[in-house]
Each structure stands twice: as C-alpha cells, then as structure tokens.
Design goal:
This protein starts with 17 loop residues before the first strand and ends in an 11-residue tail after the last strand. The longest helix is centred in the C-terminal third of the chain and has 9 residues. Strands 3-4-10-7 form a four-stranded antiparallel sheet. Strands 6-5-11-12 form a four-stranded antiparallel sheet, with no helix packed on it. Strands 13-14-15 form a three-stranded parallel sheet, covered by helices on one side. The protein is mainly beta. It is flat and about 50 Å long. The chain has three helices and 15 strands.
Length: about 250
C-alpha cells in the first residue's frame, strides 16, 4: 500500500499558491517513490464555508461586529465588504470596490473543562475550532452591504448581506427575546431545530434592526453543540444580535 501522508494547513508556506508533496523511501536513501504531487492550496479556502457566522451591533450605527468559527489552525482571518449594487454581487463578489479588514483570530481551547460537572451533567466537547472576529466601520445609513470571510490563502465560500437603517434617529424595530432554550438532541425530549419563537419573530418583523436576547439562549450548556447550532443559522448572517448570557442555562464556568 502507498504510505499515508499528512500535509497540514500550517505546513504550506506563506503566500503560496501551489505546493508539492514528496514521498521518500527512507531517510537513508532519499529516493522518491512517487512523482511530486502539486495541489492548489487556495482551493482549501474556496471550497469551505466558515461556521457560526453572526453579526453583533457596533458602538454606533456606523459599525458592525462579526464573529465566526473555522477549522483548527486557520490563520490570517479577514473580512471584505462592499456596497451592494445588484443581486449579482451575491454571486460574484464586487472585489474591485471592496474594503478589507484584518480580523483577530485564535484557537478555541476548552479541554481543561472536559469532564466538569454542572447540575449533575458532564461537559463534553468533541470539536476544535479556530475563531475570528472583526469590526467594520464607516457604514452609510440606508444602504445594503455584501461581505465575505477569508483566511491567509483566499476567500471562503459564501457571500452574505446586511442592511443599515435609513434614518436611525427616527427609530427602528427591535426583536426582544428571552428563554429561547435552544436544545441539543438528547433522547426523545429534545430536538435539534431552531426555536420556533425566533423564526416566527423574524417572519413577522423581517425588517427588524436587531435581535436582543436577554438570556437562556440555549438549554443544555454542557453540550458544546448547542451553541454551535444556535449560531450556525443563515439568518444570523444578516441581522445583528445582542445576546446576553443567562445565569442558569447559558454557561457552565464563571
């Protein structure tokens, strides 16, 4: 059988577009047993979407904050945004008119808490991530924007959009929620589905400027997956959310 080769994301040189992998017979003879294999490293980025992408309000109406999770080890997180001029911008991103902003990024590490107890339940965490967050500024009132997320190699799949209020001084709509108790699958009593209350609220007020949730966003904080599915919803990519963690369901560690 051919020997297995692992070539990690961080093994690719900075600014590389293609990379070559070699397989050697052994370190003594250094005889290649296969032809060098070239691959396009940008495809690693272009063929995936980031996870749990969501928007939060900025310090004022000219700003928006974005956060997301990505695959472990991802570096060079960034965001690009531009005024939307037509629906075609959601298919072909208008890069020529876009502004790029570097994002903060790092690793999600909760291994120290695996096995911790909360109300008789044991915390589990079976997926590792990288995280990214960025703030964009100087947004104009009454405009629609498109944006996309990238890493050091390129831009991930998915072009998203959001709107700013036309006249913030005239007021705006807020969806106010609490006790959503978004649930993770657990036996026959829990279903891994978006909460009906949030989906119905967005159907009733699709032009709301913000969702303000005051706690108990998830029901089972000892399952990391509950948060993953809470944030990983298409509508969260277009409307800002301010979610205040509650004291009984949203977190285990304080």
């Amino acid at each position: 059988d051919d020997p297995a080769v692992t070539y990690g994301y961080n093994d690719v040189p900075t600014e590389a577009v293609t990379s070559k992998a070699f397989v050697w017979e052994n370190v003594s003879h250094m005889v290649p047993v296969t032809q060098p294999q070239s691959f396009d490293v940008t495809a690693f980025t272009e063929n995936r979407e980031v996870m749990m992408l969501s928007i939060a309000p900025g310090i004022d109406e000219t700003q928006r904050n974005f956060s997301w999770y990505d695959l472990p080890g991802t570096t060079g997180a960034r965001i690009q945004y531009a005024l939307k001029t037509s629906d075609a911008d959601l298919t072909t991103f208008p890069e020529a008119n876009a502004i790029e902003v570097a994002a903060s990024c790092g690793e999600v590490d909760v291994e120290d808490h695996i096995g911790d107890k909360y109300s008789g339940h044991t915390f589990t965490h079976d997926v590792d991530y990288s995280w990214g967050n960025a703030t964009i500024t100087n947004l104009e009132a009454g405009k629609e924007y498109v944006y996309r997320i990238g890493d050091r190699f390129g831009w991930c799949k998915g072009v998203y959009s959001f709107k700013t209020d036309a006249n913030p001084e005239d007021g705006f709509k807020v969806i106010f929620m609490n006790d959503e108790h978004f649930k993770h699958t657990l036996g026959s009593n829990y279903n891994l589905t978006p909460t009906a209350s949030r989906e119905k609220a967005l159907d009733i007020a699709p032009d709301a400027s913000i969702i303000y949730s005051v706690g108990d966003n998830v029901d089972l904080p000892w399952y990391e997956e509950a948060y993953r599915f809470y944030f990983d919803r298409e509508r969260m990519t277009s409307i800002p959310q301010a979610a205040v963690p509650g004291g009984t369901h949203d977190y285990m560690f304080g």
